[in-house]
Amino acid sequence: MAYVPLADQEQELHHPHSWVTKYVFSQDHKVIAIQYGSTAVAVGVVALVLSLLMRLQLGFPETFSLIDPSSYYQAVTMHGMIMVVYLLTALFLGGFGNYLIPLMVGARDMVFPFLNMLSYWVYLVSVIILMASFFAPGGPTGAGWTLYPPQTSMAGTPGHDWGIILMLASLAVFIVAFTMGGLNYVTTVLQARCRGLTMMRLPLSVWGIFTATVLGLFAFPALFVAAIMMAFDTLLHTSFFMPAIIEAGQPLDTAGGSPILFQHLFWFFGHPEVYIVALPVFGLVSDIISTHARKNIFGYRMMVWAIIAIGGLSFIVWAHHMYVSGMNPYFGFFFATTTLIIAVPTALKVYNWVLTLWEGDIRMNVPMFFAIGFIFTFIHGGLTGLFLGNVVIDLPLSDTYFVIAHFHMVMGVSPVLVFFAAVYHWFPLMSGKMYNETIAKWHFWLTFLGAYAIYLPMHYLGFLGVPRRYYALGSTDFIPESAQALNANITIAALIVGAAQLLFLFNIIWSLKNGKKAEHNPWGSASLEWQTPDVPPVHGNWGPKLPSVYRWAYDYSVPGAHQDFIPQSTPEADEPTVDEQHFDPDHDQSKADI
Amino acid sequence: MSDIAATDALAPKSGVEGLVDDWSADKQTYHVPWGKAMMWIFLVSDTFIFTCFLTSYMNVRWTATEPWPYPSEIFALEFGGVPIPLILIAIMTFILITSSGTMALAVNYGYRRDRQKTALLMLATAAFGASFVGMQAFEWTKLITGEGIRPWANPFGAPQFGSVFFMITGFHGLHVTGGVIYLLIVARKVYLGHYEKKGYEIVEIAGLYWHFVDLVWVFIFALFYLW
Q1: CATH fold for domain B32-226
Q2: Which of residues 155-184 of A touch B (CB under 8 A)?
Q3: Measured between CB atoms, which of A228, A240, A549 is closest to B60?
Q4: Interchain pair A196, B151: CB under 8 A
């Protein structure tokens, strides 16, 4: 019997029949992607507002009485959790993963469209549960986004009854949603690539999203288990994480639990989670830099292996979040070593981005602004990571604004810049329209410079010893008055950056209707997603016949070619010949550069 | 062209060479249906969940301040005044492993397209699963009402004993219950001939899940009941 690979067999597509099945309960990966992305951005706006409330309090403690200490902790908690899980994870995997994977691998859709649809709706439920905690008695939990016990369930913590339960329920539901989506992404990349598309010809975006999803499938179980155990502790008064505690003179009815166990479970999830966000970012930015520099990505294979190495290493570094919890010095040594080893593949990626720019034919389009901005903020945040990865340097810095500065540079600003880069880059494909370039550039400069105005001074505050998570500094001996002036400056910068995001939202919404019609493949991108017959791609993506791929995704500025890029789907016969040397796919540049 | 032509000659090689071939080829990495690949990936992820549960259990058992009760005494049933340790758990384990056998037979008959026998064997598997859950319910009832074990406390020692017991067996019991429902749905569809065109991989996919649930039970049995 002739073997017909599954990707070539007729796939049953669920064709929409009504407006509801087309735009609401849609099984089309592109619609689901937009739903995921919009929901994530909407919940992200909530987190942004929370951060501005915190900044107003910190910058002008005497002037504003919008929040009290309890709601400050609630804002800290919700801001952190929303940003890390509900915004960034959902945005890059549910949003860009959904949109780009089938298009970039030349598939008609995800392998299980129905499950994919379900993933979004379950995600929406988790968001609703989370938002419900704002309206629950006692408000959302204020235990800090890491939810450390026993603080979570002590009477002094805001939201210790309803808030924490809703948070745990929401996380568990989110993990179910992620698993449904994640299984789809991984299976689609492994099993549904089109003819000719080997793993080593995949765009780095797909590699990043794929590896991040695998990390998620292995890391989220730890959070799931931690959430269940903590729910037991809270609802049934078990003592998984609760030691014997005396609260307000009265002993609680708990004994023998291990708070450190929670920390291990949480960070076994928590550290890979950083890379669940970062790896898609690495991938997307690689493609954007290569396209707008009109040059192949430098060291493609090493970029792939770096992604895999970072993914693997991310599972054996988690306890570097727990140096101050105390541990055997040998463990501290081990985790510091593995942590610093991660710098090797990460630095490799940064060098390769810079070397891709080197002597490139750089087009300063808006996505490129954001991509280059990302290189700055990422190097910056990465370097401070070297400080915090060392046990002896981490101990004094751990509880200060230095950590806030590091984390927001590397995990806040950097992914968000790439998110903007990616939205501007793929907006012509998703909508068929161009955004307004002037507004977009204003948005970039305000965001990029503003981010530095916010986070650069925080490093200094950290060295001064200003503690993080404090509602107000009060007067101390070791913090000079000038620190408060700096805090006020940071708040003003934060308000400006926050307002600048309205430019982005306005630009996107306005351009959907009034934008200039985008030409087909406006950036001259070689990768497959721009080669669809229709723009924006329609349901089923490829018309009657699936595409075939003959080369990697980075054939830019090939000598002798009649234009400065060769799409992945261009057959060899149409290829330019250079000095009688026939272009051989087995010796193409993707393999020559190492 | 060479690497494209190679797709048609997909004679799977074995060992490292085959692995390299699979991962460097275009098209699919694993030569299995999409559903089966997805089930495998899901089971790996689920393995992490149970691993976290069992590791946490060991950690909790280690940090508990009160002595850990003896499972073989608590899970004993009296027959004619003689307590037989772990007898109910032994029966439950036996039933669950037997159900793996009937499931394997169902997969076999599925590929032979013997719809009736397949459905019947899946039904038997589901019945074994349901009786397992039933006995678990009996065990829970006995421990709660008879022995006074609660998730937050028990008369035998460390309160974490009850916490871990209800959490882990409960989570596994939910897996079995879900599996029983899954098997019943698939069995009905098999019987009605829904898969005549698509083929009967679905039986094997359901079987993978079922075997996984059994395998997990073996670990729970060994680490919680026997230790």
Answers
A1: Four Helix Bundle (Hemerythrin (Met), subunit A) (1.20.120)
A2: 179, 182-184
A3: A240
A4: no
Task: Name residue, tokens 């034919």.
Answer: A361
- Is residue A235 within 8 angstroms of chain B, CB to CB? no
Model ipTM value? 0.92
Nearest CA in chain B to A4: B8
* Gap between the Cα atoms of A469 and A142, Å rounded: 11
* Token couple for A18: 């009504």
pLDDT tens digits for range B34-80: 999 999 999 999 999 999 999 999 999 998 989 999 888 888 888 88
CB-CB under 8 Å, A191 with B34: yes
| Contact A1/B at CB under 8 A | no
CA gap A266, A80 in Å, rounded = 14
Domains of chain B, residue spans: 1-31, 32-226
Residue A548 φ/ψ, nearest 5 degrees: -115, 150
Confidence band, pLDDT 50/70/90 cuts, at residue A221:
very high
Q: Is A196 on the interface with B (CB under 8 A)?
A: yes
Q: How many CB pairs under 8 A join A and B?
A: 147
Report how far apart, in Å, the C-alpha atoms of A164 and of each of A72, A233, A235, B116 are: 16, 11, 10, 50
Closest CA in chain B for residue A196: B26
Residue in B56, B62, B164, B198 to test binding to A, most A beta-carbons within 10 Å: B56
pLDDT of the residue at A592: 44
Shortest Cα–Cα distance, A507 to chain B (Å): 39
Q: Quote helix, strand, coil % in chain B, to nearest 5.
A: 75, 5, 20
CATH architecture of A24-243+263-592: Up-down Bundle (1.20)
- pLDDT for the residue numbered B76: 85
> Where exactly are the structural domains of chain A?
24-243+263-592
Beta carbons of A255 and B159 less than 8 Å apart: yes
Long-range contacts of A67-74 (CB under 8 A, 24+ apart): A69/A471, A69/A472, A70/A139, A70/A142, A70/A158, A71/A139, A71/A142, A71/A158, A72/A142, A72/A471, A73/A142, A73/A143, A73/A144, A73/A157, A73/A158, A73/A469, A73/A471, A74/A139, A74/A140, A74/A141, A74/A142, A74/A158, A74/A159, A74/A163
